[in-house]
Amino acid sequence: MMYRSVALMFALLLPRSSLLADEEWVTVSMPGNHADQTGYGGVSCEFQIMKCEVTVREYAKFLNRVAAHSDPHELWVTAMGEHVITDLGQGGIRKDVPQCIGREGQPGAWKYSPVPEREDCPVFFVSFFSALRYANWMHHGGRNGDTEFGAYDLSRGMTVSRSTEAKVWLPSENEWYKAAYFQPEERGGPKGSYWKFPFCTHDQPVKADPGSEQNHAACFSRGFDGIVPVGSYPNAKSPSGALDMGGNVWEWTDTTVFQSKRVLRGGSAPHNLEKMRSNVRSNASPDRWYPDTGFRLARRIEN
Fold first, then answer.
1. How many Å apart are CA 3 and CA 15, to the nearest integer?
2. pTM of this prediction?
């Protein structure tokens, strides 16, 4: 893989058809903000982003709704539920990768279940395309809705992009970056209005066990098996109030680089703290999946 905050306020939402309660989203306000010196973070509209990443439990519910009869798009991959020794496209054989979702039954009657003690961890082994299909499902209300159209038209393959009518979507790199790092100076932010790390700080994050109350605790340098439940560091919030935007799992964005690859942000459990810095980004082919890569969604604020 290649590497290269206005204290944002919460807003009341109108009820939506969604699997997530309103308190599981945070508002990223101050539309029209300037970009960072890196060129990222400028967003024209107010929006909301999930407070934490999509969990194993939530993704398993999705699978049981849309992939119980068949799974032609490989929303579930073998590595989610079985030990697989592979290079995963990351240069070198990986033997320490965990599992997250098991599958039982047979075609026409598949049943998906979270691996014990992984239920509240962020889901991983999810490709960019699978994340888009989850977004489409949520766009349609999170029931038995279409996974191929809605926020994204998956028939476009590698060139797929967000619909202007999207209600729920995968955040762009600018949206993700703003939610993670932006806090204007006049509202308590640093000079330049962007923090170096997604915990309202320029100080280096602290490697900590789940439950730490430190305000810049994070999950990093723990290996692939070191992924922890979402929200494990309740005081380590981004300026928008989002959690886990640094470490634990890399997160897909819907921004394209190098013609068809998609940008990843935030670092992960097996990587070091440097990957959480605002000036570090990664990217991957949209059809690949990894043991340290998940996602969170963004959504429109209804008027």
1. 39
2. 0.91
3-class secondary structure, 173: helix
Q: What is the pLDDT of residues 78-88, one digit of tens each?
A: 999 987 765 55
Query: How is residue 276 written in tokens?
Result: 């959480």
Contact residues for 164 (Cβ-Cβ < 8 A; gap 6+): none
Residue 265, strand partner residues: 251
Distance between CA 99 and CA 147 in Å, rounded?
A: 24
Length of the chain: 303
**CA 39 to CA 180: how far, in whole Å?**
15
Residue 257 near residue 263 (C-beta atoms within 8 A): yes
Q: What is the DSSP annotation of 73-135?
A: T-SS-HHHHS---B-TTSSS-B------EEEES-TTS-EEEEPTT-TTSBP-S--HHHHHHHH
Measured between alpha carbons, how far is 110 from 74 in angstroms, rounded to an integer? 13
Pairing between β-strand 293-294 and β-strand 250-257 as defined by DSSP bridges: parallel
Q: What is the mean pLDDT of residues 240-255?
A: 98
**What integer pLDDT is reported at residue 88 of this predicted model?**
52
Relative to beta strand 250-257, strand 25-28 is unpaired
pLDDT score, position 240: 98
Q: Are 272 and 197 in contact (CB under 8 A)?
A: no
Q: What is the pLDDT of residue 156?
A: 96
- Fold category of 1-303 in CATH: paralog of FGE (formylglycine-generating enzyme) (3.90.1580)
User: Which stretch of DSSP H or E encloses residue 40?
Assistant: none
Distance CA 298, CA 282 (A): 20
How far is 68 from 125, CA to CA, in rounded Å?
A: 19
- Each domain of the chain, given as residue ranges in start order, spans 1-303
Backbone angles phi, psi at 130, to 5 degrees: -65, -40
